Structures are given as C-alpha cells and as structure tokens.
C-alpha cells in the first residue's frame, strides 16, 4: 500500500550513512540491549544443565555444561535485528559453533532438513538446518566479555544473527532435528516462519 | 500454548485520527477509525509506519488500549519519550483528521479474552497499563464475572493513566479491584502503596497461588523482570504468567 502516503509533518531521524546500509528495512538503531520474552526468566542450576541434539538422529548426543565449555570457542561479532524494530550493531559473543555440535551427531542430511531449537519452559523456534550450518549459528554463553546474563538468555542461547532475533532462542537446551518443518512458538502465533530481516519477514504472509 | 492465531497477510492500511485525548502530561490517547478493521483480541498491538516526504520510514509497535467491542475504532495510548523519533510525533504533531498507516492486529500470546476465565491478575508499570486496559475494558463489556485485580505502579498521582476510568470501573463493575502504588511522589493522605513493587506487595494483592490465577505483566523491562521473578518464586506457575516488555533498557 504505502502508495505515496506521507505522514504530514513527519521528518524522522536519519541514520548516519555508514550505519544506514547495515539496518534492514523498518529497523532502527538501539544502543542499549532491550529484553523481550514471553514469560518469567527461568533459572536452571548449571550442574543440572545440559544441551542435547535429538530427533531424527542415529543416537541423541548430550553435553553437560562443562563439556560444552570445553569445546573450542568462537567469538563472533555480529549485528542483531529484533522483530520489534530495534537493531544492535557489532555485538560481541562467545560460544560454540553449531557446525561443531552437529558434526558429533549422525543423521541423514538428505532427508533431515529442519531443526527445532527448544528452551527452558515451552519455547521453541524452527529453522531450516542449512541456516544453522556453515558458520552462521552458535550456542553462546558469553556476551561482551561476561557470562551471558539470564535476562538475555543465559546461561546459553542460540545465536542466528542473519534471522530476526526470536530465532536466537534464549535459555536454549537443545536442537531437535526433523524431516518436516514444524512451526515453533512465535511461528504458530502469526510471526513469519523464516524471519529474514532483509526481506522484512516479520509476520506470516510477509 | 493457547490462542494459536493463524494470520493471513497483514497489509498496511490507513486509519484516520478521529479523537485525541491527553491522559497525563506525558501520554496521549489517539483514536483511529480504521475502515475494514477485522477486530482484535485484548492485549494485541499494531505496528505504525511513519513516512516523510522523501520516503524515509520509521516503524514502531503500540498496544491497543480499546476493547474489541469498539469495532473499527482503535485507540492507542502513547507515552512521549523526549528523545524519541516516533512517540513525540504521535503525541505532539498528530491531530484529528490526520491519517496514520498501520497494520495489525499482532500478537497471539499476550492476550486475554473473557472466555479464558480467571481469576485475572494484572500488573502494570507506567504505560504498560495500555494492553491491560484493553483487557479491563473488554472484561467490563463481555466478562464482568471474571474476578480481576490490577496492581498498577506509577511515578506519581498525575502520571496514572486512565485514573478516572479505573475509579469509575471499580465502582460500576463488581469483581474488579485496583491497587495503586506510587514510586516517586505521593500526595498528602495517599492511601495506596508508596514504593516499588516487591514481594510483600505482590503477596498482598495477588490471588493466592492455589487459585491458579492467570497473570499478565506489562511495563519497562526491569519492572516486568522483577515482578515475574518474584511471582515465580512465590509459587505461581510460570505457564500462567505472561509478560510483555515495552521499552528498551540497557
Ligand atoms: C509490543 C510492544 C507494544 C508497545 N506498546 C506501547 C504502548 O502502548 N504505548 C507506548 O507508549 N509505547 C509502546 N511501545 C513502545 C514503542 O514501540 C516505542 O518503542 C516507544 O514509543 C519509543 O519510540 P520512539 O521512536 O519515540 O523512541 P526511539 O527513537 O525508539 O528511542 C529513543 C531513545 O529512548 C529510549 N526508549 C525507547 N522507548 C523507551 C521507553 N518506553 N522508556 C524509556 N526509554 C525508551 C531508547 O532506548 C532510545 O535511546 C510498545 C513496544 C512494543 C515492542
């Protein structure tokens, strides 16, 4: 629609040119770190925490907290884009690449093409497996040189920065690999199934 | 997970401002007439898109304050963030007769309808009252038998949004109880709470855990975090506590 509609008297605050190219449509820059989630912040003691890869796999694989931390770390610096319109540039994370985790699991990569990330509580989010592989996704436990704060998803969250930030499941506890795509929590509530910020895929049908 | 809303494509549409009303010195309600509005559920929001003459866009989300019973009249209540890009335009510049581009309704999780029952416990911080007001107004129209308590934290008496209407509704709508707390300034003779929401206050005001209330908390992030964490600690099931956070913080 937008067919030439102008908001009378609206000037707007332009982004600096160097930042403009890094902001997807409809997003604006945020310097703080907003928090969004659907319920209370969960709290699992680290000695009871684990991360599992399960579903259509030959044998499920489980890491406890110390085992996860013992894997080689990466420190991605990425831009993140939240569907509620804020973006944050050059965020610094520390974690383990999902490539590395999935390398330790056997599955049929011709038929198993999707994953559901699941978290404490009932939160789930679905992604094509290809979006978790190839250096595009991490399980992170550090932010800005500190342990990841529980309000931001600590002890560990998924980080998939090329999709809207709800795909980066907070308080993540594992991945379920599947042959069929299964809409997750927000994806069943009218949000877009894939969520590419550069195509502004906020809501189903976008 | 309940309330699975499968939306079709959400198109941008134009609404016309048919009324504005200052609620407090920093907040204003804006009522839009949106032809063809398909209705909404209390708690949902819309996205607004402002466009400047040279085609620059800014988008933000605003909760719907009006109940579905208002049909194609959709009311938003906007708090002016002085350094903000969009909210000062909405509170200062926009007036009756202007048009506004929006799409919605959005969100199928932070919603309450009379059919979901109760008892209902609503906790609001500042402008976080907005989506809860849609629930309270809907309750008055469609579900007055659902026992409902609101705990509402504001900085001062003058900053309580919808104060008169809440007073009126507690008189006219049995089963609605409202408790206010003021965190910065209290007038002489103030009978409500005068501190930030804490465990004692929540224990006082909330329905007891064994009544398994349905709880909705909305406001700035630290406020929501605080209240939700306390309630979970007091033994309320996390599955029955729904939260919505508005304002970016650090
Ligand atoms: C689901 C949802 C529902 C919302 N409903 C409402 C509503 O009903 N009423 C309403 O007034 N707002 C609501 N908001 C917030 C709204 O979308 C905007 O974020 C807000 O109006 C600020 O936009 P702005 O362009 O004026 O400020 P911006 O230009 O985005 O921000 C300017 C500066 O102010 C800070 N800031 C932004 N928001 C706040 C805040 N709330 N408190 C303190 N500092 C802030 C930012 O961090 C930034 O530094 C809602 C947000 C969401 C995600």
Sequence of secondary-structure elements of chain A: HEEEHEEHEEEEEE
Give the neighbour order of strands across the main sheet of chain B.
4-3-6-1-2-5
CATH C-level class of chain A is Alpha Beta
Count the DSSP helices of chain A. 3
Mean pLDDT of chain B: 92
Tell me the total number of β-strands of chain B.
11
Any idea what the CATH architecture of the largest domain in chain B is?
A: 3-Layer(aba) Sandwich
Distance between the termini of chain A: 13 Å
Number of domains of chain A: 1
**Total DSSP helices of chain B:** 5
Strand content of chain A: 25-35%
| CATH class assignment of the largest domain in chain B | Alpha Beta
What is the topological layout?
The complex is a heterodimer of chains A (206) and B (250).
Chain A: H1 17-20, E1 28-29, E2 50-55, E3 61-64, H2 65-70, E4 77-81, E5 86-97, H3 98-103, E6 114-119, E7 124-128, E8 138-143, E9 146-147, E10 157-159, E11 172-178
Parallel strand pairs in A: 1-5, 2-11
Antiparallel strand pairs in A: 2-3, 4-5, 5-8, 6-7, 6-11, 8-9, 8-10
Chain B: E1 13-24, E2 27-33, E3 45-51, E4 57-63, E5 73-79, H1 87-93, E6 99-106, E7 120-125, H2 129-142, E8 148-154, H3 163-172, E9 176-182, H4 199-205, E10 214-219, H5 221-233, E11 241-245
Parallel strand pairs in B: 7-8, 7-10, 8-9, 10-11
Antiparallel strand pairs in B: 1-2, 1-6, 2-5, 3-4, 3-6
Bound molecules: flavin-adenine dinucleotide.
Flavin-adenine dinucleotide sits between chains B (45, 60-63, 77-79, 81, 83-87, 127, 130, 220, 244, 246-248) and A (28, 30, 32, 84).
Give structural notes.
The complex is a heterodimer of chains A (206) and B (250). Chain A is mainly beta and 206 residues long. Chain A has a single domain (50-199), classed as Oxidoreductase, molybdopterin-binding domain (Sulfite Oxidase, Chain A, domain 2, Alpha-Beta Complex). Chain A has helices at residues 17-20, 65-70, 98-103, and strands spanning 28-29, 50-55, 61-64, 77-81, 86-97, 114-119, 124-128, 138-143, 146-147, 157-159, 172-178. In chain A, strands 1, 4, 5, 8, 9 and 10 form a six-stranded mixed sheet that branches. In chain A, strand 6 and strand 7 (124-128) form a beta hairpin. Chain B is an alpha/beta fold and 250 residues long. Chain B has two domains: 2-106, Translation factors (Elongation Factor Tu (Ef-tu), domain 3), CATH 2.40.30.10; 114-246, Nucleotide-binding domain of ferredoxin-NADP reductase (FNR) module (Rossmann fold, 3-Layer(aba) Sandwich). Chain B is built from five helices and eleven strands. Chain B has helices spanning 87-93, 129-142, 163-172, 199-205, 221-233; strands at residues 13-24, 27-33, 45-51, 57-63, 73-79, 99-106, 120-125, 148-154, 176-182, 214-219, 241-245. In chain B, strand 1 and strand 2 form a beta hairpin. The radius of gyration of chain B is 18 Å and the shape is globular. At the A-B interface, loops of A face strand 3, strand 4, strand 6, helix 5 and strand 11 of B. The structure holds flavin-adenine dinucleotide.
């Amino acid at each position: 629609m937008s067919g030439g509609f102008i908001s009378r008297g609206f000037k707007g605050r332009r982004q600096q040119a160097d930042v403009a190219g890094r902001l997807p449509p409809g997003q604006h820059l945020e310097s703080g770190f907003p928090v969004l989630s659907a319920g209370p912040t969960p709290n699992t003691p680290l000695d009871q925490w684990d991360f599992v890869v399960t579903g259509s796999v030959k044998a499920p694989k489980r890491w406890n907290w110390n085992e996860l931390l013992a894997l080689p770390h990466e420190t991605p610096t990425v831009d993140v884009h939240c569907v509620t319109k804020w973006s944050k540039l050059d965020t610094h994370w520390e974690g383990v690449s999902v490539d590395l985790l999935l390398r330790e699991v056997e599955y049929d990569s011709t038929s198993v093409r999707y994953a559901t990330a699941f978290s404490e509580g009932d939160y789930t989010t679905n992604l094509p497996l290809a979006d978790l592989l190839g250096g595009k996704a991490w399980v992170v436990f550090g932010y800005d040189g500190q342990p990841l704060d529980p309000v931001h998803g600590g002890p560990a969250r998924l980080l998939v920065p090329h999709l809207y930030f709800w795909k980066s499941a907070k308080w993540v506890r594992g991945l379920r690999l599947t042959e069929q795509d299964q809409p997750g929590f927000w994806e069943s509530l009218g949000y877009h199934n894939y969520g590419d910020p550069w195509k502004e895929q906020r809501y189903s049908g976008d | 997970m309940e309330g699975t809303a499968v939306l079709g494509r959400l198109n941008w549409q134009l609404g016309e401002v048919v009324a504005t009303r200052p609620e407090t010195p920093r907040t204003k309600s804006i009522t839009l007439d949106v032809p063809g509005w398909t209705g909404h559920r209390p708690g949902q929001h819309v996205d607004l898109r402002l466009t400047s003459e040279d085609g620059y866009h800014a988008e933000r989300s605003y909760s719907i304050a009006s109940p579905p019973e208002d049909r194609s009249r959709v009311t938003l209540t906007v708090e002016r963030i002085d350094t903000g890009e969009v909210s000062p335009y909405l509170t200062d510049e926009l007036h009756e007769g202007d048009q506004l581009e929006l799409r919605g309704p959005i969100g199928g999780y932070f919603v309450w309808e009379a059919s979901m029952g109760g008892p209902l416990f609503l906790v609001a911080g500042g402008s976080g009252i907005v989506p809860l007001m849609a629930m309270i107004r809907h309750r008055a129209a469609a579900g007055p038998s659902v026992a409902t308590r609101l705990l509402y934290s504001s900085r001062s008496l003058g900053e309580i949004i919808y104060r008169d209407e809440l007073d009126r509704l507690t008189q006219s709508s049995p089963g609605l109880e409202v408790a206010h707390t003021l965190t910065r300034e209290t007038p002489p003779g103030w009978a409500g709470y005068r501190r930030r929401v804490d465990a004692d206050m929540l224990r006082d005001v909330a329905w007891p855990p064994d009544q398994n209330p349905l709880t909705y908390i909305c406001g700035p992030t630290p406020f929501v975090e605080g209240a939700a964490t306390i309630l979970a600690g007091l033994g309320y099931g996390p599955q029955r506590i729904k939260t919505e956070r508005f304002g970016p913080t650090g």
